[in-house]
Write a structure and sequence with these properties.
binds magnesium ion; 9-stranded mixed sheet; alpha/beta; 9 strands; binds nicotinamide-adenine-dinucleotide
């Protein structure tokens, strides 16, 4: 079992912390740090939509260079694909000597896109949850688990500084796990590609298409292969696979145990290993960065195509129906 860290020394955060970006993570970090007694400034683009929201929440907001100047720690909470440009133009030239640089995801540092100078601690505190949960749970006196890592330890104190930050945003209350930039980045990319987003959506869509191609009604196919996923995942989240299997019928369980491995067979595992290899050797990152640099031609086309798939229309119709008549409401719907 990995070591779980519960508490950092908040006295280590005795200088100014600049939170750059006020989106999902940025707003949660800034507000939680402030409520933990840390001196926070939010750094934003001039004209940013978030400027007023951050000020209304009682935070001090400055342009990015001014927020970075004088900061002991700079938390870069911008979308990953814009971080490199903003770092090089507005953050790096204004960093105090010895200031720490913090990330909530390892991508840019791990793949060498951002390389802070040798005099700076480079750390990560990655809450394992969306930003609004990080704030919500903190306000309720609880916290979101977090991953903590050090890429560069200039001060000799970088890990303790990261633990202090994680504690101030509430991750200590749920537990902080030590990791590396490589482990966090590679496992995160693999999870979203092979399982959580890519794998699971493709599986649901393939199931839907198989039933529709065989002549079943699209609404029935949607219901079975897509809508019901939430109910199953909720059970797994609550008590693991065995708890889910305990809740479904014996017929469903027998089908699950005899047929699951037939669908996700050795061939799928071989493909998963290939995806992981592409992540580890940097070829996925190079592809993504080139796509970004070219203005996202493939990304945009794929996004448009996915949104036009008939499955999306059927889903929308069923959700509208559920809104009116409760037909697909969870209460009216058991797991079969
Ligand atoms: P986000 O998309 O919510 O936006 C961040 C903010 O950055 C925006 O609200 C805006 O204030 C600013 N911004 C956007 N474009 C900009 C630009 N071109 N120049 C300057 N500022 C700009 O980002 P997020 O989801 O909070 O992600 C921030 C970091 O946290 C990323 O590294 C991400 O991987 C990581 N992370 C996110 C989550 C999550 O649940 N969203 C969870 C864990 C880690
Ligand atoms: Mg991810």
């Amino acid at each position: 079992m990995a070591t779980v860290h519960r508490e950092g020394n908040l006295d280590l955060l005795n200088g100014k912390v600049a939170v750059i970006g006020y989106g999902s993570q940025g707003h949660a970090h800034a507000l939680n740090l402030r409520d933990s007694g840390v001196d926070v400034e939010v750094g934003l683009r001039l004209g940013s939509d978030s400027w007023a929201a951050a000020e209304e929440a009682g935070l001090t907001v400055k342009a990015i260079p001014a927020a970075v100047q004088g900061a002991q720690l700079v938390a870069i909470l911008l979308p990953d694909h814009v971080q490199k440009g903003v770092f090089e133009r507005e953050i790096e030239p204004n960093l105090e000597p010895g200031a720490a640089v913090l990330f909530a995801h390892g991508f840019n540092v791990h793949f060498g896109e951002i390389k802070p100078g040798a005099g700076h601690d480079v750390v990560m505190v990655a809450p394992k949850g969306p930003g609004h949960r990080v704030r919500q749970l903190f306000e309720a006196g609880a916290g979101t688990p977090g991953l903590v890592a050090v890429a560069q330890d200039a001060s000799g104190n970088a890990f303790d500084l990261a633990l202090a930050y994680g504690t101030a945003i509430g991750c200590g209350r749920a537990g902080m796990l030590a990791t590396t930039f490589a482990e966090e980045t590679e496992s995160d990319l693999f999870g979203e590609q092979a399982v959580l987003c890519g794998g699971v959506c493709a599986l649901m869509q393939a199931g839907y298409e198989t039933l529709v191609d065989a002549g079943y009604q699209p609404e029935i196919a949607y219901y079975e292969c897509i809508n019901e996923m939430k109910l199953i995942v909720d059970l797994i989240y609550e008590g693991g696979f065995s708890y889910m299997r305990h809740s479904i019928s014996d017929v469903a369980e027998y089908g699950d145990l005899t047929r699951g491995q037939v669908i996700v067979d050795e061939h799928v595992k071989t493909t998963m290993k290939k995806l992981l290899e592409d992540i580890r050797n940097g070829s996925f990152a190079r592809e993504l960065i080139a796509e970004e640099d070219a203005g996202r031609p493939r990304f945009t086309a794929l996004r448009r195509m996915a949104a036009k798939h008939p499955v999306e229309q059927v889903g929308q119709e069923l959700r509208d129906l559920a809104g009116r008549e409760g037909l697909l409401g969870q209460e009216a719907h058991g797991v079969h």
